[in-house]
Specification:
Elements: E1 23-28, H1 32-46, E2 50-55, H2 57-65, E3 72-74, H3 78-86, E4 96-100, E5 103-107, H4 124-128, E6 134-137, H5 143-154, H6 158-161, E7 165-168, H7 171-179, E8 185-189, H8 190-195, E9 200-204, E10 214-219, H9 226-235, H10 239-247
Parallel strand pairs: 1-2, 1-3, 6-7, 6-8
Antiparallel strand pairs: 3-10, 4-10, 5-8, 5-9
C-alpha cells in the first residue's frame, strides 16, 4: 500500500521565509512554476523582492488564519478563499480570479496516452490493476482532490474507487506518485500533467463534471505591505502576467461585462 505522502515544495511546514522580502506570497502548489516566473518578472520590473511559499490551498489558508505573515494568498479554489473571507482574514475588494484550469487523468505508462473524455464507462478501476492506487490530492480538503471527487461522483465512479486512493497533501505530490511509478494513475490539473515529462494524459474530465476550476487571489488583512500587495494582485490580471500564465497552460477566466 502506498503510504500517505507529505511534501514541502519550497519551505518545510510553511515556515516563515528567512530572507528579507518586500512581499510574501502564499500560492497554490499547482501554480508553482508559473508563480516563480511571475515573481522573477515582478522583481525585475519593480526591484521588490518576493518570498514565494507553495503548498496546498487548505494548508496555507489555515496558516493565514493562524497568523502566518502572508501578504497575498492565491488559492486553487474559491472555497478556501471564502473560508478566509468569512473569518475576516482577507481584503474582500482586492479578490480577483487570475486563471482557470482543466482536470485530467494521468498515467505513468506512456502507452496509456489519450485525450479521450473520461465517462461513466471509463474503467479506471480495471486500469489500476489488482493492487494499484489512484493518486489524488486530499479529497476532503485540497482543491484538486475536491474537484477529483466531484468529477468521479458525477460520473458514478467514486464509490468503486474510494477504497483505492493514494491521497496526498497537494496536487504536485499526487503528480509525483505517478511520475515515480508508485501509482499507475492520478488525477491532477492539465497544467501539472504538461509540466511533468514522466506522465501522460490518459483522459480529460468534462468541465461540467465538477465545479469551475478558478484561482482567486487576494490581499490578506494583516499584510505588512498592503499597497505593494494590492499592486501585485492587480498586476496578475494584466496582459503581461496573463501571457505568462497561458505559457504554462493556464486558461483565462471568463469575466462578465
Amino acid at each position: 500500500m502506498i503510504p500517505f505522502l507529505r511534501t514541502t515544495l519550497l519551505l518545510t511546514c510553511l515556515a516563515v521565509p528567512t530572507k528579507a522580502a518586500d512581499l510574501t506570497v502564499f500560492a497554490a502548489a499547482s501554480l508553482g512554476d508559473a508563480m516563480a516566473e511571475l515573481a522573477t518578472i515582478w522583481e525585475g520590473e519593480t526591484d521588490q523582492a518576493i518570498a514565494l511559499v507553495l503548498a496546498g490551498s487548505s494548508t496555507m489558508a489555515r496558516q493565514i488564519d493562524a497568523g502566518a505573515p502572508a501578504d497575498v494568498y492565491v488559492s486553487a479554489n474559491e472555497t478556501w478563499m471564502n473560508w478566509l473571507a468569512e473569518r475576516g482574514r482577507i481584503i474582500a475588494e482586492s479578490q480577483v480570479d487570475i486563471a482557470s484550469n482543466r482536470l485530467v487523468l494521468v498515467a505513468h505508462d506512456p502507452n496509456a496516452a489519450s485525450e479521450i473524455e473520461v465517462t461513466a464507462k471509463s474503467d479506471i478501476l480495471g486500469a489500476l490493476g489488482p493492487s494499484g492506487r489512484l493518486a489524488i490530492a486530499l479529497p476532503e480538503a485540497v482543491p484538486a482532490g475536491i474537484y477529483a471527487k466531484a468529477a468521479l461522483t458525477d460520473l458514478g465512479l467514486w464509490k468503486g474507487l474510494s477504497a483505492r486512493l493514494a491521497p496526498t497533501d497537494n496536487v504536485r505530490a499526487a503528480l509525483a506518485l505517478v511520475a515515480l511509478g508508485e501509482a499507475p494513475l492520478g488525477i491532477v490539473y492539465a497544467t501539472d500533467a504538461t509540466a511533468e515529462p514522466r506522465v501522460v494524459i490518459a483522459g480529460v474530465f468534462a468541465e461540467a463534471s465538477h465545479p469551475p476550476i478558478r484561482y482567486p487571489a487576494a490581499v490578506t488583512l494583516d499584510a505588512s505591505h498592503q499597497e505593494t500587495a494590492s499592486a501585485f494582485v492587480a498586476w496578475l490580471v494584466s496582459p503581461a502576467a496573463q501571457e505568462v500564465l497561458r505559457g504554462y497552460g493556464f486558461l483565462p477566466v471568463r469575466r462578465s461585462e
